[in-house]
From TrEMBL:
Protein name: Aldehyde dehydrogenase
Pfam family, one: MoCoBD_1
A Gene Ontology molecular function term of the record: oxidoreductase activity
Domain Aldehyde oxidase/xanthine dehydrogenase a/b hammerhead: 210-290
Organism: Halocalculus aciditolerans
Superkingdom classification of source: Archaea
Amino acid sequence: MTVPDLDVERRDLLKGAGGALVMGFSLGGAAESAAAAEGEAVPADLQSNPQLDSWLSINADGTVTVFSGKVPLGQGNATAFSQIAAEELDVDFSRTDLVAGDTERTPNEGYTAGSSSLEAGGTALRYAAAQAQGVILELAATRLGANAGDLTVEDGTINAPNGASITYWDLLGGRYLKRQAQPGVQPEPPNEYDTVGESVERIDIPDKVTGGKAYVQDMERPGMVHGRVVHPPSYGASLNSIDTESVASMPGVVEVVRDGRFLGVVAEKEHQAINAMEALDEAAEWSLPANFPDQDDLYDYLERGDADVSTVDKQGQGAAAIEGAAETYEATYKRPYTMHGSIGPSCAVAEIDGQGQLTVWTHSQGVFPLRESLSNLMNKPTEEIRCVHREGAGCYGHNGADDVAGEAALLSDAADGRPVRLQWMREDAHKWEPFGSAMLLKKRAGLDANGNIVGWSHDVHSYTHATRPPLEPLLPAWFLDSQNEEHSPTLNIGGYRDAVSDYSFEHSEVTNHFLENSPLRVSALRSLGSFGNTFANESFMSQLAHEAGRDPVDFRLDYIEDARTAAVLQRAANMAGWGDDDLGENRGRGVAVNRYENAKAYTALVVDVTVADDGTVSVDRAYAADDSGQIVNPDGLKNQIQGGVVQATSWTLKEDVDFTNTEVDEQDWQSYPILTFTEMPEVDVELIDRPGKPYLGSGETSQGVTPAAIANAVYDATGIRFHELPLTPERVKAGLSGE
């Protein structure tokens, strides 16, 4: 066997046999991962990108480059991917280097979303690396005069029984394998793992804690100039007049850009760009339409809206069984619009070279979909656009990363070949990023005379939870004279995520009421509809346990058939010492459990809270148990669970997007507070490892259980059930006063 020389550009190789670079959303999930784990199929992302060279490169300098279309967003997947590759190739972790999210260099794995990094991307990489090692051993067998099955590998050195040896680097030395993925590959068994399952130190942490250039916000390019944009004060605002001449003459200004309602400046220094932006903002006169409902009427607006109604799930007689129950109960739960609240506002760097090639450095979750949207925005072929991922300071879904990339690209057209760094101001992020959708959840259930659930219903009222590019145009396309396109028809995505609970009821019904046109811009925010649905399901389950005179944990276990769901619930309860919980005055304990998307990781949470006389709720401690299948990096997984609990605690206690009839009324951390360091709970996490089981997505699994556990704990402390988020001191104090 011979190995072809490295005689083609990597991007040309990736476009070769099998059509490797195709749009992908990684919808296979756990089923694909499970099938691959049993050798039944090539994992979905590997099917879409079948060239083994798309995934890794054996380099002449003794290193291995790992390529991933799934990008690091703070979740530690860069370290985990390198661990997986090192394990399957039998090389030391220190030899690996990761390239993630580059439209010229990496496989197209669609978006890094839906908790799919390890479940989809990690599984594909595992099988690609395992098969690549098989090809390498075949080559080595010929060179060493041995059978491939008799060879052993230690840190990239292949040893034959006759004492001969050769290294990966000497054998390949930067040449391509030019092999396509095949089914039937058997990766390394868990009992032989050396690297996977270990808490290898995360490779992204040092720069983040030492002030290094960890984020796209820190990027510098030779000759770089700075951009700023002036967004309209609200959606649909009309630009009546604008004077750009006085701004163009300001110190350091390179160019003032106007196209329709799109207003931007380019300047030599960042402070000059900010000064010019402020002057341009002052020079603009706008008319604002009153397009928004009264915020106080938001949930009535949701309920009476023109909805597309569909049955998501029905068991037995469905909701009709409730009518014959001995006792019936109902409750309505409310989740407000919520923003990403990233510490670093969205940022991008764009550069057009002398040949017209556009390169954008972006913290987008999907560089390939972004490239398509940039092509539409710029009227430029995708072949002339390269998108390169750089991590951003806070990414929890579809924030402003794609929009700011589009705006930077537009400004780069006016920069005469110089790179343009564009960072949103805090007000831009708070007013213009897509929010998590508001939701109204209506619950009904019936108990028989013995306190058993005989009927259960759940109604979801929600807008979409996904308008990512290219589903909708980038924000600047709303403003350009040539496009002026604010909205495409929205898709019914994410609203009923986890609306179907993890409990087995003889009679149950889940109904989705999808509303197409949200008054506020909405899209994917960590866990999508699961946050609201799990809040409702698990709050209501605790209420029914109380009405039945049952312990909330025991009551749940009566309706759980999945042994892994039961295991995390029992583990979290044991961690907290459930049953021995006399916490003292004004203190309470609550519980919640959920399997994310009914198919990904299992998480149970117990929280302890204190409720002050002024209504302030403090989460003192949280106990989380998680089952994410085979664990790659225990410490990284714990970080994911802890981070989810902390963020969801902030959503639960503080966060709510305010708006008037004409505009989003948010511009800083005073108007939109988030949890502070001194308010963070202590979060204990225990992991249930499942060696040999598929990786299960865990990036969003602790979001939904958190509000329910907190609300249940507040009830335990006060005897009052709260159904509307956030649990602000004002709302809680009013509830305690009977208002």
